[in-house]
Design brief:
The complex is a heterodimer. By secondary structure, chain A is an all-alpha fold. Chain A contains 15 helices and no strands. Chain A folds into 2 domains: about 55 residues, no CATH class; about 240 residues, MetI-like (MetI-like fold), CATH 1.10.3720.10. In chain A, helix 3 packs across helix 15, helix 5 packs parallel to helix 9 and helix 12 runs antiparallel to helix 15. Chain A is globular, with a radius of gyration of 26 Å. Chain B folds into 2 domains: about 170 residues, Periplasmic binding protein-like II (D-Maltodextrin-Binding Protein, domain 2), CATH 3.40.190; about 200 residues, 3-Layer(aba) Sandwich (D-Maltodextrin-Binding Protein, domain 2). By secondary structure, chain B is α+β, with helices and mostly antiparallel strands. Chain B starts with a helix and ends with a helix. In chain B, the strands form 3 sheets. In chain B, strands 2-1-3-10-6 form a 5-stranded mixed β-sheet. Helix content of chain B is about 45%, strand content about 10%. Chain B contains 17 helices and 10 strands. The chains are: A mainly alpha, B alpha+beta. At the A-B interface, helix 1 and helix 14 of A face helix 1, helix 3, helix 10 and helix 16 of B. Chain B: Pfam families: SBP_bac_8 (PF13416). Chain B: Keywords: Periplasm. Chain B: This is Carbohydrate ABC transporter substrate-binding protein. Chain B: InterPro entries: Bact_solute-bd_prot1 (IPR050490), SBP (IPR006059).
Amino acid sequence: MALHSEILSKESRPAALRSRGAFGGVLERNAAGYVFLLPWLLGFFGLTLGPALASLYLSFTNYDLLQSPDWVGAANYVRILTDDPKFSAAMQVTFTYVILSVPLKLAFALAVAMAFNRGIKGLTLYRAIFYLPSLLGSSVAIAVLWRQLFASDGLINMALWQLFGFEGPSWISNPDYALYTLVMLSIWQFGSPMIIFLAGLRQIPTDMYEAAQMDGAGKARQFFKITLPLLTPVIFFNGVIQTIEAFKAFTPAFIISEGTGGPINSTLFYTLYLYQEAFGFFRMGYASALAWILVIIISLFTAFSFLGARYWVHYDD
Amino acid sequence: MPMVLDRRSVLWGGLSVLSLAAFNTPALAQAARLRMIWWGSQERADRTNKAIAAFKGVKPDITIAGEFAGWSDYWPRLATQVAGRNAPDVIQMDYRYIFEYARRGALAPLDDYIGKALKIDDFGKANVDSGRVDGKLFGVNLGVNSSVVIYDKAAWEKTGAKAPSMGQTWEEFAENAIAFGKKKPKPGYFATADASGLEPSFENYLRQNKKALFAADGQLGYEPADVAAWFKMWQDMRKGGGCVPADVQALDQLNIESNALTTGKAATAFAHSNQFVGYQALNKAKLALTAYPKVSASSPSGHYLKPSMLMSVSATSQNVPNAVDFINFLVANPAGVDLLGVERGVPASTAMRDQLTTKLDEVSKAMVEYIAAITPAVDPLPINPPQGAGELAFVLTRVSQEVAFGRITPEEGGERMVSEATRTLSRK
């Protein structure tokens, strides 16, 4: 109430405003805005920026969670880059995951979006149903469910046995397959890119397809010559977002391997390795350095995506 | 202007009310509120919560809020809470981790309470000392236990293979397991879980060979050949169909719930004796327990009596005397001791053990008898583990998986284990 009356009262006293300095005036005018922003600002400085800067400092120390940190210079970074086989293992797992899951997920999302775009009955219902897995997304319950599905006597193997008489391995606990079950989990959560694709498809003018049809272009040709090129900004956007998400994936691997990244480091996601070092083995300083290297990797990846985008992304202008 | 002042005063007024509320609550509270954290199964949680409720009857003004987690989630959670200056008052500790925490100043020394609030005089020197780090008491022994072989006797007998028994050699055990595999009652069911990646089992084997996990100088107490022989023995059982395949063993999350015995994949588990109560609670079949097989009839048993777990108090606790009262209730008051039973191991106090044994059910009695049976042949506790030792259990599990999945040979596994373990220990 006090705020409201203050805003109203401003109009009635321009003299008071003029008497202050220009800066004070700006502050005064925007005060209400900043007050409304306060929850976000508190969150940003207190929960994001502050801890991030603290971890930057800690990455140059030997902080072990329980004792106060000592400065060790760049030793953590040197060790990570020159003398850490687990780091290379984690990089390999993470890059495999990103390179497989992102394109497959986008392709799947696009396929579903195209199917919906044909104007089927009850679209809103279907859209909601297909979006559901993404809402449950990184939840613990889904990872636990996945564990049950792909265990040695899980649903997948039961189905394989009933349908084909094939005795499947324990997918999640076999180093040859464990990572791919996680890739599948990621593809299954195609909801948010699908919604964005659907919106993108709606933007494409239908007269273009009509014109192409009259010129004798088939469905496939229409897709490659009209849909894809006009959708590139949306594909690009989805690609960048999903890549960052994939680099940060943690929960599924944590649940499925019970925090070990096993069997034989086959699900040792970068974030999981970082977590192990920090909270399992009391090496918070080292883990902070790992976190900053991940920040650099994601930044580089995103920067190159934007640099490369000018060669294939068509903006309609 | 008055409007502006109005708003400010409202803001500041609001803030001061908030801060009053925040700072005054502890001062207003009369009763002491303590937090306790432990790891373990649902069975343990039920028993612990009953003990907490019973303590409320003894000391009505102390309220204890309990929380628990599985073994592998427990340590990250505790480390985070301690680092965040938010450590629970009463902390269940493991013999391996107590060194990490005590040496980093996270635990309160309890020496001053011995004989007063903490009546542990009849524990015997060895059982009191098992909670000491560098001479000071940081943990109270909650129960005595040892490694154990837990097996489904009926399942073994049904196949005609000889079940594990005291004094059996590893060679006999492996032969029997393979015989079991040839007559197994159903597909996907095996004589035994694969213990090649379990550090306590490996340690037992090393001690039978008069080696140890760690030598007195804090270096490794074994050589590549020792690990290779251990891996080889399990590989032969695996290939002969005696123990579970690698991908079944990899589902084991080092707890009772996911062990191959509990999940119905194997008839034998390698565990800690106090877990016998938890295993029986989760298994329909009647279980039996016996000592580890030995490398030869004349070798040491490899067993030692260790504190299954310890009770410690956080160094930052505001309620150390109350926390000590509660710990004393758990280890030296029949009301508490009886509720915990032997699920955390056999009570270290002679008086408590004697009064408890008469009240035990069959399962718990079998466990107490087991400890009594192996006691004549046990050797002393191993030396204090060096810093970084906690990580080696994970290394052993991973290398054992590399062997089990056929990525490397047992010999290569031995080399890899020793080189990675040495690397880890040398890291500062």
